[in-house]
Every structure is written in C-alpha cells, then in structure tokens.
Write a structure and sequence with these properties.
3-stranded antiparallel β-sheet; 6-stranded parallel β-sheet; 16 helices; 389 residues; Rossmann fold; 2 domains; alpha/beta
Length: 389
C-alpha cells in the first residue's frame, strides 16, 4: 500500500507551487482531484501558446505533464452556484483542499476554508500565495522572481558582481511546493490528534527566505557576507578541451589536498582560504582543465577520489545511469501506449507503484460528479468564475 493511500485531496491550484505540492502527495498514493475551471484552462493555453495547437497537440502536451500525473480531473466553473454546491458536497469527503488564488478570492466565491470547514471540521486548507494571507504585501501579484527579490535571494543570484541575475530555475516555486506538502502533512497530523482542521498559510516569500539560511547562520550581519560572484577557492566550474564542463567542490581539507596534487599545484594546499590567491588558482586550474577532454578528467578525478561531476544538460540528466537506477528518472506509459521518460518521485518509500500519466481535463467528471448525485452534463461549465490568482 502506498504511504498516503486513503488521503483525498481537492486541488484548485494552477501555478507551479500548488501543483508541485499535490504532485508530491499524488506520487505517494493520495487521491488528488484537480478542479479545472474552463476559463483558467483557456488562459493557460494563451500564456504558453497551446491555443494554437489542435486537439491532438494539446492532448500530447497534457499526457507529458509530470505535475498532473496520477491525478484525477473534473471541469467546473467554480463561480457558478451549481459548481459551488458540488464542490462543497465533495468537500465533505476530502481531507485536504489546496488552492493558489490570491487571498480572499475563493472565500468570496463561498469556497474558502471556513466554507469547507462548515461541512467538514477536520479539513485542511493549504493556501499558496506570493506573500501570504497577512502582511502589507498580502495582495501583491507576481511569480517566482518577485518572491526571490523580496526574500533577498535574487540579490545573491549570478556571478556578475555588478548586477544580479535570474537563477534560470523556479527556485521559489519548487521550494514553496515542497514546504506546502510538508505543512499539509503536519496539519493532518495535528488534525488526527485534535479532531480539528486548519487553514495553512504558505507564502512563497517566506519559503524563499529559507534559501538564505546558510548565509544568515554564518553572517549575523548579512552585509558582511562575501559579495555576489565571490566563490571559494576550492569550488569551480571548468571547461575542458572538448568544450564540455565539470564542477568541483573540494572544500574539506583532505579533498582539497588531493585535488591540488592532481592539478599539479601542491603549493596551493595551505592557501585554500586565501582570497588573495583566488585569481592565480582559478587561472591555473582553468588552463589545466582546458588541456584535456572531459572524459580524461573524469577518469583522473575519479581515480583520485575528489569531489566532482560532469555538468549534465537536462537531456543528459534523463540518461544518467545513476538517476535511472534509483528511480529518479522513470518511464510512464502514455495514453497511446508510448513510453514517456519523466522524473520520478523525489522521495520514494519502499516499493513504489509507477504513477499513471496525466489525463485530459474533465476525465473524471462522470466518476466523481455522478457519485455526488449530479449529472455531469447538467452542471454549469461556462466562464463566470474567479479570474485572477
């Protein structure tokens, strides 16, 4: 039995943090029911250019959607009275509601935490927003880079000492989704102990602030931290003779000693923390790595036992034998029987079933809505619901 078998989640989320949270829960066996508003689907299609695709093109994209896999889907206009009634009835049987609208939007539609708690006192509502349900920035709109900027993280991104840079990954989104899953399970534990649910307030800016925990722990005065672009002598990204790249992280003294020996500069060993030597060291190591192709350096560094890795492209990561062996990369069978290469659950507990591919919006209308006593075709699916996140 999967770890979260029996857990039922009603998922209103649309942007990366919320679906990431419910993806983690679904991959551990929770029954996640996505509520997909036709208007939100149309807006998403325009944002990503999917509105220009035919039905087959959209279906192919949906089947590959990792964050939608293993989840059920119903299509409802959440702003209609019929939709609201159906969702509250469904709320009687769920353990968790996850949503990522701006504070107060769902409550204004009669679908807030208090509304669900009125029919299900143990329900957990996990709300993911940019800046949280309280505070001066409560109603501020924005996405990942805005959260990183407010939290001070964007100021540390990039190696240009004169200007911050975009990180190139959705760091705030993913860390928020992970924290939201943790917070949801903690709230469920509390509900089991007390019989009472609660509204869980998860802020992207709060979660992003945690990305600087190492800096704040080591520098009580954050302004005293080394400026952006300042790297330790014992860390480096190096281009090899064939144009491919390596990263090295020989911070512990014994690794640094071995690395310097391999690179032909034992005299650098006592100067590991000497910032005045950074330029000399970097120039020497860069020139040495440029003399041989990457495979030669991989063999030499592996034989010496230093800390290194080839810098995989995203495609190379999906072919990495270690990631495949661990199940971090897996194959999911698509709706047409074709094999879809996807990332696996980040955490795997024992024998883990292969998740089901993502299904089309509304694929479970008949199953879920008829179980509530509704005729799915009789429910309002027009576009009069909530508009903004």
């Amino acid at each position: 039995m999967s770890a979260l078998a029996g857990l039922r989640v009603l998922d209103f989320s649309r942007f990366l943090p919320g679906p990431y949270c419910t993806w983690l829960l679904a991959d551990q066996g929770a029954e996640v029911i996505r509520v997909e508003n036709p208007r939100e689907l149309a807006k998403q299609a325009k944002v990503f250019g999917w509105d220009k695709l035919d039905d087959a093109g959209r279906a192919a994209i949906r089947a590959r959607d990792i964050l939608a896999r293993g989840k059920k889907s119903i299509t409802l206009d959440i702003g209609s009275s019929q939709g609201r009634a159906a969702l509250l009835k469904l709320g009687e049987s769920v353990d968790v509601v996850v949503e990522d609208y701006r504070p107060g939007v769902l409550a204004g539609l009669g679908l807030g935490h208090d509304d669900f708690a009125a029919v299900n006192p143990k329900v957990i509502t996990t709300s993911l927003t940019l800046c949280g349900q309280t505070g001066p920035y409560r109603d501020k709109p924005g996405h990942d880079p805005v959260a990183l900027a407010i939290a001070g993280v964007l100021a540390r991104c990039g190696e240009n000492p004169d200007a911050p840079g975009m990180p190139g990954i959705p760091a705030a989104d993913v860390t928020t989704g992970s924290h939201a899953a943790f917070a949801t399970l903690a709230a469920l534990r509390h509900a089991d102990n007390t019989g009472r649910g609660q509204h869980v307030d998860v802020s992207m800016t709060d979660c992003a602030l945690g990305l600087l925990v190492n800096l704040y722990s080591r520098h009580p005065d954050p302004d005293s931290a080394p400026p952006r672009g300042t790297r330790r002598n014992d860390l480096g990204i190096w281009q090899c003779a064939d144009g491919k790249w390596l990263v090295t992280t020989d911070m512990e003294p014994r690794y640094w000693q071995t690395f310097c020996t391999v690179m032909g500069r034992a005299d650098f060993i006592p100067r590991q923390l000497d910032r005045s030597a950074a330029g000399e060291m970097r120039n020497h190591f860069a020139a040495k790595f440029a003399e041989k192709p990457r495979e030669v350096w991989i063999e030499r560094l592996a034989a010496a036992g230093t800390q290194f890795a080839p810098i995989n492209s995203p495609s190379e990561a999906l072919r990495d034998p270690h990631l495949i062996a661990r199940g971090a990369v897996m194959t999911v069978t698509g709706p047409d029987g074709a094999a879809l290469t996807q990332i696996g659950p980040p955490v795997r507990l024992g024998a883990h079933p292969v998740p089901h591919h993502a299904v089309a919006p509304g694929a479970h209308n008949d199953e879920i809505l008829t179980a509530l006593g509704y005729a799915p075709t009789g429910l309002d699916t027009t576009t009069t619901g909530a508009e903004n996140p």
